Amino acid sequence: MEQQVALVTGASSGIGEQTALELLRHGFVVYGAARRADRMAAIVGAGGHAIAMDVTDDASMRAGVEQILAAHGRIDVLVNNAGYGSYGALEDVPIDEARRQFEVNVFGLARLTQLVLPGMRARRSGTIVNISSIGGRIYEPLGAWYHATKFAVEGLSDSLRVELEPHGIRVVVIQPGAIRTEWSAISRRSAIERSGSTAYAAQARALVRALEAADRSTGATEPHVVAATIAKAAGARRPRTRYATPLSAKVIVGLRRVLPDRAVDRVIRSVFSPTKEELAEAQHAEAPHADDVDRTGV
Ligand SMILES: NC(=O)c1ccc[n+]([C@@H]2O[C@H](COP(=O)([O-])OP(=O)(O)OC[C@H]3O[C@@H](n4cnc5c(N)ncnc54)[C@H](OP(=O)(O)O)[C@@H]3O)[C@@H](O)[C@H]2O)c1
Asked: Quick one: 5-181+222-259 is in which CATH superfamily?
């Protein structure tokens, strides 16, 4: 049987890197894509290929897909994994940054899917694996834009699944829980940058504490666990529509399905409420808002 060809975005780190390595172990021809092409040496060392690609840059996405098609004539599996967390109170996040969050987490995923679909349709076969999150089902304060993108990936993937079924193409959603990667530090940094000295400063500190605790906890999951699930879904003839991983993620998604909003709010509040120390610290950090300055004539 001909070797299956997979393209994995966000392969320079975390879940994407481990997925590329896992697919190589499963016998796929693997192309890892990311902006930091130099960070994919492990994939190249294991027999894979590295492509420099920015999922906000149409030309780089087209060039990457063309390169693979020229070499192999096909892409059987696309793992849309590239993404980051843009945190901060909705009031504080510039709309340009919100647009960028959507460019990377949603439009990049959609554009790359557009580019691989003609080939998959022609062969009446292929699998699109979209990396969502438990954050595509639940929510955090100061996470409005990140969650908006992941909720969007959930809805987009549902439509796409039924749209592509008649063409023989499978669409799978992966919902990871807290996974130990570069994601947490990037998300924490964005929360502090945007809201660390605004009216939301205490909530920003509480969020950072909660994200840090999830990252440091001995129970935190390593990315190879998610990679194993992705590889299983990519190789399945009839994959499930969604895979929440690890078990704790499954529990959270299950609870969200049965609990009313207010009950979920209470749980979220218990995790993300600022402590007395965080409230005190935030009072010192809080700077006057630009609009307040104008209004008071200071
Ligand atoms: N870690 C978690 O707890 C967790 C939980 C649920 C879902 N997820 C999701 O899992 C996916 C992978 O995240 P991760 O945890 O593995 O984080 P990570 O270690 O930060 O990896 C993110 C990857 O995305 C790539 N990326 C970011 N912006 C990009 C762009 N504009 N163009 C191309 N590639 C870009 C990065 O590569 P370059 O910077 O080199 O381009 C990197 O390889 C994300 O979609 C994330 O939202 C993560």
From this structure: NAD(P)-binding Rossmann-like Domain (3.40.50.720)
Ligand 1 contact via 10 beta carbon (within 6 Å): yes
Short-list 205, 203, 197, CA closest to 286: 197
- Per the confidence metrics, is the pTM higher than 0.85? yes
Q: Which ligand 1 atom is nearest residue 82's CA?
A: 24
End-to-end CA distance of the chain: 73
pLDDT tens digits for range 40-74: 999 999 999 999 999 999 999 999 999 999 999 99
Q: Is 150 a catalytic residue?
A: yes
Structure token pair of residue 297: 């004539």
CB 80 within 8 A of CB 104: no
Q: Is the CB of 12 inside a 6 Å radius of any atom of ligand 1?
A: yes
Q: Is 197 a catalytic residue?
A: no
- Short-list 153, 140, 138, 59, CA closest to 104: 153
| Residues in contact with 161: Cβ distance below 8 Å, sequence separation at least 6, in sequence order | 170, 171, 241
Q: Respond yes or no: is residue 132 known to be catalytic.
A: yes
Say which of 13, 86, 132, 184 is annotated catalytic. Answer: 132
| Nearest CA, atom 42, ligand 1 | 10
Decide if 193 contacts 88 (C-beta within 8 A).
Answer: yes
Helix axes 276-285, 201-216, angle to 10 degrees: 130
Q: Is 13 in the pocket of ligand 1 (CB under 6 A)?
A: yes
Q: Indicate if ligand 1 lies below 6 Å from the C-beta of 129.
A: no
Q: Partners of 175 in the beta sheet?
A: 244
Give the CA radius of gyration of the chain.
20
Is 146 an annotated catalytic residue? yes
